[in-house]
Amino acid sequence: MQSNINTSQPVYVAPANPAGRALASALTAEGYNVCGLADNLKQADGIINSHAQSKPDAIVIICNGPYTHNVAKGLMARGFAPHQLYTSLREDVDTTVQTQSSGASAHSDIRPYKTPISEKFKSFRFRILSFTIKVLRSIVPQRGYVYYAEQFFDTNMLLAYRQHRRQYPDEPWLIGRNIKQDLTMLDADNHLLRLFSLYGLWKMVRAKKMVVDHEFTGNTFTLLRKFIPVVQLWHGLPYKALSGNIHYPDICDDAFISSSSWFNEHIFPTIFRAKRYLDFGYPRNDVFSQSPQARDWINAEPLSTLTHIQNTTGSIIVYAPTYRDWGDNDYPLDLDKINAWCENNKRAFILKFHPFISRQFGDAMALPDSENVQTLPSHPHIYLYPSGKNIYPWLADAETLITDYSSIAYDFLLADKPIIYFQYDKQDYLKLRGNTLVSDNDFIAGEVALTIDELLRLLTDSAAANTELVSALRDKFLLGNKPACPLILEEVRS
Q1: pTM over 0.85
Q2: Res. 90 pLDDT band, cuts 50 70 90
Q3: Are 439 and 238 in contact (CB under 8 A)?
């Protein structure tokens, strides 16, 4: 080990992701006193977020990767001194663990962390830009509203923006940074801008408010929210632990919007900072109180496709699992059994995966790249829904939802239809994700399946339709069916 680290010295490993956990395991096996994980964002047992939570004389070893400098900067902002930070120069942590298990020294390349010149330049540029925006906002009149996203415009964002654009065409602007999404559905919208165009930056500087539905962690959003009031739509009522922004003491958004006053009282204030918590609902959930013709089908497969599948294959069942960020996303689906059950019962089984998993699944099934729903080869009753598209107009017509730990289950309570929870890896999930934000009694409103055979039995058995549990949770969380978009628009413009 080419460093001055004493193996008895308290060590934390950052960040709390699969690579960090693998590094922590390898160091522990080598005899290092690993006390837990450190992370700028995640909060759970065994994870610290600041120097105040660490043991005396502790150091932090950061995994090498594209995020190393952001992690280091975040740790220093939370009280860690530069001399307490080290980096593991190995990028192939998984290979390292295998090497260690064979008896070789797993980590001979740990060095004191040094901020590179490029990061110092970025910091200087950030300070100049911050000063410039502050001055400009103090002298130019504020006008218009910005709906902002990074990498992907999610459904809540698009629907709220469209409502605003319909009623006040000149006011809202959809501005994105590093957008990787197919935006052909917005080709005719001349209010769609890229952030780092001069015009896009000018619109941001003048904006009265900024609407988001994620917690972006990069420098750009961090800078903009310093000067522009933020309305946070978020994107679901959580079961699993969330990072939020509570660990940023200088952040306090103008408003935080969800679909539940109960969550606004008991959960969200513990992880998000905001002046007000409003239970206006999520725009995507408006579909549950609308006819198919009245729904906004933005970024969704068209009604004609849904109707064709219903008429030719049968009523739809939607399977929408959450993404497993520890890397094990091999869902134990017996496609032959599922297809046979669907054929016998005249049903269509719709798969809606996370984009990463959808690509892997499509490759494994030899499906061509497509932005349209596809039938699986040799399984005519099973369909892969495009991962980047909005499933909610279809979900409103689903006979049953199958999920696991996803917040989509809370949304589907508004449909008053059966939910089945396919939780085949519950213990692994809890071990790696940490404690959940709510108890199972406040999440599960139906039956739990551990195997495909149990899942198919529950789909057949009317006991899966536990309407009493659905009603009880809907009432507890005060989930209403009032249209969210008009209420959100009024709040944004207030």
Answers
A1: no
A2: low
A3: no
